[in-house]
Design brief:
By secondary structure, this protein is α/β, with parallel strands linked by helices. The protein has eleven helices and 14 strands.
């Protein structure tokens, strides 16, 4: 929330529990019917989509500004849609008396509701009215399976929103060639082969030192915060410019958070004809070795090229991260570690006692050993590589903890 006008652009959803009912509320961008700006037209189209889904509209008005000509235009438009509407006059606090709201009754939408969103005044009474307008409660169904949360991350203008719209086959999020179009994380549920997914579009992430406005700084913080709640991250790159320093910083944060990561090299339709997906994957691994286990798919949001493969990759990574190996599979991996003559010296000279999987999402293992020396990063990387490649965790970070018993 900020005093700057026009912050909300996409449809932002939130669940509300009130009066024994659970319902979803949608925040939309502000309407400006007379504006010829293409962004305003896109925002208006998102409002139309929200109204098509809605059972009730809350028409928010500004109690401090009073009744404005644009309010009358919006009221006329809402009436033509034929859905129930509650006129809600906000900012009714110290400067506006509750009895000063009745000029808004001229809109013909019934008695207006006086609230203060900042102080919470009148919100409970408004929610009571909302509950009365909800459709009858339907019998509860079986609990839906938990949805896999997929965060789509990247620099500004790499095509994150376009890619999500292509996946969903709808204009769910605003797309514009001006940087900064997406500001809030936008979540959309998507069902694929019986599995529920929530795709999360995020603001483009720039280096902190290049962020100039408070709005962009908050958008950056929100985008990075999505990493912690995601089950899988999709790092979107621009095929026309390759892997940049800002990409590396962002993807390093994903790996540090131990989140499964796949790379979508988008705008493949604009890449040179000589470009080869395998060569691109190899070049990314050479430039950033910490990405060597992340699968790479070259996509085009414009043409739909390999978008289905991206969906399947993300679904596979989510399953990998939650996988628990059987005792027999863990023992087989332990034998590989114990008997591989190509292992680093620290492992070859140690007496390995036991390997056990202690967690998932991310897959976590304990390796017990007896040794006179400390295990090194080289040893840890080797163990992770074996577990990932032979344990079926190819695209997922793996945590390994050494439990050492010293020789006496």
């Amino acid at each position: 929330m900020d005093a700057t006008p026009g912050l909300t652009r996409d449809r932002l959803y939130g669940d509300v529990n009130w009066g024994g009912r659970t319902f979803r509320i949608v925040d939309t961008g502000g309407l400006e019917f007379s504006s010829g700006d293409r962004m305003q037209k896109a925002i208006a189209s998102q409002v139309v989509l929200a109204m098509e889904e809605a059972s009730l509209a809350l028409f928010l008005l500004d109690g401090r500004d009073g009744l404005m000509p644009l309010d009358r235009q919006v009221a006329d438009w809402l009436r033509r849609l034929g859905k129930p509407v509650l006129a809600v006059v906000n900012k009714v606090d110290g400067e506006v008396r509750p009895d000063g709201i009745y000029e808004f009754a001229e809109l013909g939408l019934g008695s207006p509701w006086a609230v203060s969103g900042l102080h919470g005044l009148g919100v409970g009474e408004l929610l009571d009215a909302v509950v009365k307008h909800l459709p009858p409660k339907t019998p509860s169904r079986e609990t839906a399976p938990v949805a896999v949360r997929i965060a789509v991350l990247g620099r500004p203008n790499v095509g994150k929103s376009s890619l999500i719209n292509r996946i969903l086959n709808q204009e769910r999020v605003l797309v514009d060639d001006r940087p900064g179009t997406t500001r809030d994380p936008v979540e959309t549920e998507f069902n694929y082969k019986g599995q529920r997914f929530i795709w999360i579009d995020t603001a483009g992430v720039r280096a902190r030192k290049t962020v100039q406005s408070r709005v962009d700084a908050v958008a950056r913080i929100k985008a990075l915060g999505v990493i912690t709640t995601a089950d899988v991250c999709v790092g979107v790159l621009d095929a026309t410019v390759g892997l940049l320093r800002d990409d590396l910083r962002l993807l390093d944060q994903v790996i540090t958070s131990c989140k499964p990561l796949c790379l979508a090299v988008n705008k493949w339709d604009l890449a040179p004809r000589s470009a080869n997906p395998r060569q691109m994957a190899a070049a990314l691994a050479n430039r950033a070795p910490f990405l060597r286990f992340s699968p790479v798919v070259c996509t085009s949001a414009k043409t739909g090229f390999q978008v289905l493969k991206l969906i399947e990759l993300a679904a596979g990574l989510a399953a990998q991260a939650c996988k628990r190996l059987t005792s027999a599979e863990v023992r087989a991996l332990f034998e590989v570690l114990r008997n591989d003559g190509k292992a680093p010296p620290g492992l070859r000279h140690a007496h390995l006692i036991r390997l056990s999987q202690v967690g998932s999402a991310p897959p976590s293992f304990h390796l017990m050993a007896r040794t006179r020396s400390k295990f090194t990063t080289l040893d840890a990387n080797y163990v992770e590589k074996v577990l990932r490649e032979q344990g079926g965790f190819e695209g997922t970070p793996v945590r390994v903890k050494f439990l050492v018993k010293r020789h006496t």
